Amino acid sequence: MERGQKQAVQAWEALFRSQVTLLRRFKANFRTAEISLSEYDVLYNLTLFPGARLRLNELNEHILLAQPSLSRLIERMESDGLVRRERDPADGRGTLVVLTEHGSVVQRRVGRAHADAIAAYVGGALDEEELRVLERLCNKLRAAQSSIAN
């Protein structure tokens, strides 16, 4: 293994292992929440887009679930009144997932507790400068993927 390759593998392993550790803690926190971490992820992602709506296939790009699993999750969330599905007026074959008022209220309420946990687990481990560097590096890594060949 070349030096650069070895360093890339070690960096990835460190990033991945820290993510696994943090996600386990966050999932444990969500055991007592009114929604699951996956449901919160959907609600949070919808708040990031105009009109709190997104095509199902576009939402799938932001969520770490396979398309069939996301579709089943959206069905459950719709029956709980957190989201609703609509036909995409620009393409009648497409489905939009729309955040409901109830979903927005739940997202904000659960989001406050989740933000407190993030502040404790991530902010408790890194100082402000380290947090800025981490954010910058993660954003750079994510953005670069579209221009790196398979």
UniProtKB/TrEMBL annotation:
Any one Pfam family match given in the protein's UniProt record, by short name: MarR_2
Domain HTH marR-type: 1-143
Record's keyword terms, sorted: DNA-binding, Transcription, Transcription regulation
InterPro entries assigned: HTH_MarR-typ, MarR/SlyA-like, Tscrpt_reg_MarR-type_CS, WH-like_DNA-bd_sf, WH_DNA-bd_sf
Keyword Ion transport: no
SMART domains cross-referenced by the UniProt entry: HTH_MARR
GO molecular function: DNA binding; DNA-binding transcription factor activity
PROSITE patterns noted in UniProt: HTH_MARR_1, HTH_MARR_2
Transmembrane regions: none
Gene Ontology biological process terms from the UniProt entry: response to stress
PANTHER family named among the record's database cross-references: TRANSCRIPTIONAL REGULATOR, MARR FAMILY, TRANSCRIPTIONAL REGULATORY PROTEIN
UniProt protein name: DNA-binding transcriptional regulator, MarR family
Organism of provenance: Haloechinothrix alba
